[in-house]
Every structure is written in C-alpha cells, then in structure tokens.
C-alpha cells in the first residue's frame, strides 16, 4: 500500500511540475508592464511589434525633412581624421627622426629613422646577442639577417617603410622610413 501511495505522490508531483513549466513557457513578460504582469502569447497579439515598417520609415523621413538638426547618417564623419598608413613596428609618422646611425642595444636609439632613397643606415651593436633581421614593412627589404660583428651598414635604394627587429628579443623593433 505504501508503494502505491509513493507512486501516486510521485506522479502527482511530476504532473504539477510539468503543468507549471508549460504555463510559464506560454506566458511572456509584457514590456513596460508592472512586475509580474504576463500575457498569453498564443492568444493575444503582440502589440509591442511595430506596425508596418515602411509607414514607420515614411514618418521618420517626413520628420527629418522638417527638422534641420537631423544629420544624414550616410554622410562621412568629418570628426574622423585620417592618420595615414598603419604604424610599422610601432613607429608612427610622428616618431621618425632623420638619422643615419642606430645604436643597436636593448634601448634602440633612435628606433624610427627617416632617410632619402639611396642613403644608408648603420647599426652599431652586438649582433651575436642581438641578431638583426627584416620584420614587417615593405618587401623585399634590403635589411639582411646579421648575426655576427658589431656594425652593419645597409643602403636603401627605394622608398618605403622597412621594419626590423632582434630575432631573440621581441621588444627590440623599429623601422626605417625611406622617402623619394
């Protein structure tokens, strides 16, 4: 007899849980209504859906025509400033200095140099501990892989921005900007 009561109670509990789950799945919260307010979405049309979208667009167009403060969103944003090409190895246009010699150590001085096409740049440093290689920028790069010695000089025949780095230390980066 106790098994029959337990089975009946379990069935009753399951039925109650299913009924509760089904009723809450059919009810939706009404936007803007008091907390706890619901409506049956299966029987009541949803008044929160905008009426005909073309009528709404026409209303906005006529309002915009009468309001001179409305800005055409398709027009370019004049507050955006074109900052030119993206930086190469962190060298922005304002970072470049005219120089033909680079101190090649953990502190690269200067890291971003500018020269004229046909000029050369000399790196002075220990290339065993800080191997030099082309990295990012224009390709092909005249910057060779250098892993020995203390000085290397590279001639840059063509305009472009040529990045370089130490192949061991990722923070040692820079660029040579070559102008025509």
Write the H/E string, N to C: HEEHEEEEEEEE
CATH top level of the largest domain is Mainly Beta
What is the annotated CATH architecture of the largest domain?
A: Sandwich
Q: Walk across the major sheet and give the strand order.
A: 3-5-10-9-7
- Distance separating the two termini: 101 Å
Helicity level: 10-25%
Task: Compute the number of strand runs.
Answer: 10
CATH superfamily of the largest domain: Cupredoxins -  blue copper proteins
Indicate the structural class. Answer: alpha/beta
| Count of individual domains | 2
Task: Tell me the fraction of residues in β-strands, as a range.
Answer: 25-35%
Uncertain stretches? 4-10, 12-73
Mean pLDDT over all positions: 73
Molecular shape: globular
Radius of gyration: 35 Å
- For this structure, the CATH topology of the largest domain is Immunoglobulin-like
Q: Count every helix, treating DSSP H or I runs of 4 or more residues as helices.
A: 2
The major sheet is characterized as: 5 strands, mixed
Overview of the structural elements:
Strands 3-5-10-9-7 form a 5-stranded mixed β-sheet, with no helix packed on it. A 3-stranded mixed β-sheet has the order 4-6-8, with no helix packed on it. A two-stranded antiparallel ribbon has the order 1-2. The chain has 2 domains: 1-43, no CATH class; 93-179, Immunoglobulin-like, CATH 2.60.40. The longest helix has 25 residues, at 2-26. The protein is α/β, with parallel strands linked by helices and 180 residues long. It has helices at 2-26, 53-66; strands at residues 27-29, 38-40, 97-98, 101-104, 112-116, 120-125, 132-137, 151-155, 160-166, 173-179. It contains 2 helices and 10 strands.
